[in-house]
Task: inverse folding
């Protein structure tokens, strides 16, 4: 395992690896996963994908979420935005890749 | 983006607003590069991130009611919803979360279709994570 993690990791990524949070080395596909994600930056992103958010089923959307509405030169608060619209909505988080 | 059309279709059928939330590119060239078609680095300005959000909507060939973009340097949507790289949430008219999908891409769509087909008969359902 030490050999796999011999590249120069930033301190925060190193801690994640040591804590076993970035990758679960008990998984059968552990080595494959490490090889596929072979950079400190990707380690950090991989860990981010496994993080926990504050938004929970049965609870209101967190009140502190500010954002930008596309095509509009203004920032808004997600709670306020949803309250004004008064519509059921699907929040679809995605990316091009 | 694989299932954007399905999500959009279900939103239109069930009369939900489809709100695209653009937080961060999963495989930007300078971060976690995996695909040759990704010819851009992670944006460092709000304008650049907005351009990618627009590109996402156009490429998906869907018609969302709204597109929201996370603030560069703050990433509050991403943190609140643990949304990286892909994720689905459903909120009711009061802004209460009634469904939370699994972490994408592998579990992005899990439970969503079933939820959308049964939601009309229930005030609240538990979602992909079966909370």
Result:
């Amino acid at each position: 395992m030490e050999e796999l993690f011999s590249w120069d990791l930033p301190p925060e990524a190193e801690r994640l690896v040591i804590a076993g949070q970035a990758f679960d080395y008990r998984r059968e596909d552990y080595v494959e996963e490490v090889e596929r994600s072979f950079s400190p930056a990707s380690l950090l992103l991989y860990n981010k994908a496994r993080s926990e958010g504050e938004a929970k089923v049965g609870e209101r959307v967190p009140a502190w979420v500010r954002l930008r509405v596309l095509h509009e030169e203004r920032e808004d608060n997600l709670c306020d935005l949803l309250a004004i619209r008064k519509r059921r909505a699907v929040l679809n988080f995605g990316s091009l890749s | 983006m694989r299932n954007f059309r399905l999500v959009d279709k279900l939103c239109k059928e069930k009369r939900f607003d489809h709100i695209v939330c653009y937080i961060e590119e999963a495989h930007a060239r300078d971060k976690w590069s995996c695909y040759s078609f990704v010819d851009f680095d992670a944006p460092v300005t709000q304008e650049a991130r907005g351009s990618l959000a627009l590109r996402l909507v156009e490429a998906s060939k869907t018609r969302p009611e709204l597109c929201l973009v996370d603030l560069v340097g703050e990433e509050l949507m991403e943190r609140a919803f643990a949304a990286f790289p892909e994720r689905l949430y459903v909120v009711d008219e009061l802004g209460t979360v009634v469904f939370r999908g699994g972490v994408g891409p592998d579990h992005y769509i899990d439970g969503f279709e079933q939820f959308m087909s049964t939601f009309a008969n229930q005030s609240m359902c538990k979602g992909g994570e079966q909370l």
